[in-house]
Amino acid sequence: MSTFVAALLNSLDIGMLLFVIASGLTIVFGVLGVLNFAHGALYMLGAYFALTAVRWIELPFWAALVIVPFAVAILAAAVERLALRRIYARHPTQALLLTFAFLLILNDAVRMIWGPGYQIIDPPRALTGTFVLAGAVYPLYSLFVIASGAAVGLAVWLLFSRTLIGKRIRAAALDRDMALAVGIDVPRLYTLVFAFGAWLAAFGGALAAPMRALGPAMGDRIIIESFIIVVIGGLGSFPGALLGALILGALHGFGGRWFPQFDIVWPYVGMALVLLLRPHGLLGRSA
């Protein structure tokens, strides 16, 4: 029983962190129609900015967790206004190439500023202990990650379903021309959405910093897993991002515990099965 509970907690830990990150990717695609290859690099920036805030500026981790995502969101808003906005009307491959270029730029910038080595951040003192559930001993910080992912998911759902700005964003996503005709400032909304997607990625990076070693290529794997999640759940589907993240977390949590030699393979197997049986994703809409 304790082994099962440990695997379940590990699945939720991984799944909720991936959900925070992948939800930003799927929201940007759902509204802007852009698959942001630089999303993983924004996650990496969130982790490194948190490292800088905690170790160099000596801010409390809680302050870094609040400030860092906004700093990355401001940077992303500048990128959207100065570069990405110019190519919305062009072929989608140009947006892919542009965001991929920013991925390469940010990866090299991290190597130049922070160096090529791996670094770590200690979790806040209040969350350094462990808790016991059904005989399974698990880090307290992982419980905080699970709770944070759930809180972010609820907040995002409330934002898009219960607020005026959320309804305007949904209107712009459904019909840009009609939204413009009724007076909605669509370009400004696009900037806000892209910045919000970056905020989610950076929040995920800062949240993951005390759990994972920080390295210049840490965003590469996370962007692959985020793409797998949105493919499994359905491109542009926020509930699909949650479902896909929980499935991927379970594949890592349970598959990695009992079949660790196939841990890297499980996500691709899951994605292949979904593409074969339901090409538009589990909760996505068919074209």
Named at the architecture level, the CATH assignment is: Orthogonal Bundle
Uncertain residue segments: none
Number of strands: 2
- In CATH, the topology is named ABC transporter involved in vitamin B12 uptake, BtuC
Largest sheet: spatial strand order: 1-2
Mean pLDDT: 89
Alpha plus pi helix count: 11
Which secondary-structure class do the elements indicate? mainly alpha
Largest sheet: 2 strands, antiparallel
For the record, the count of structural domains works out to 1
Please report the distance between the alpha carbons of the first and last residues.
Answer: 44 Å
CATH C-level class is: Mainly Alpha
The helical percent reads over 70%
Spatial extent as radius of gyration: 19 Å
Q: Strand portion, in percent?
A: under 5%
Order of helices and strands: HHHHEEHHHHHHH
Given the C-alpha coordinates, what overall shape results? globular
Give an overview of the whole structure.
The structure is a single chain. This protein is mostly helical and 287 residues long. The chain has one domain: ABC transporter involved in vitamin B12 uptake, BtuC. It contains 11 helices and 2 strands. A two-stranded antiparallel sheet has the order 1-2. β1 and β2 (136-139) form a beta hairpin. It is globular, with a radius of gyration of 19 Å.
Secondary structure elements and pairings:
Layout: H1 2-32, H2 39-56, H3 61-82, H4 92-114, E1 130-133, E2 136-139, H5 140-162, H6 164-174, H7 176-181, H8 186-208, H9 218-233, H10 238-258, H11 266-277
Antiparallel strand pairs: 1-2
Helix pairs in contact: 1-5, 1-8, 1-9, 1-10, 2-3, 2-4, 2-8, 2-9, 3-8, 5-6, 9-10, 9-11
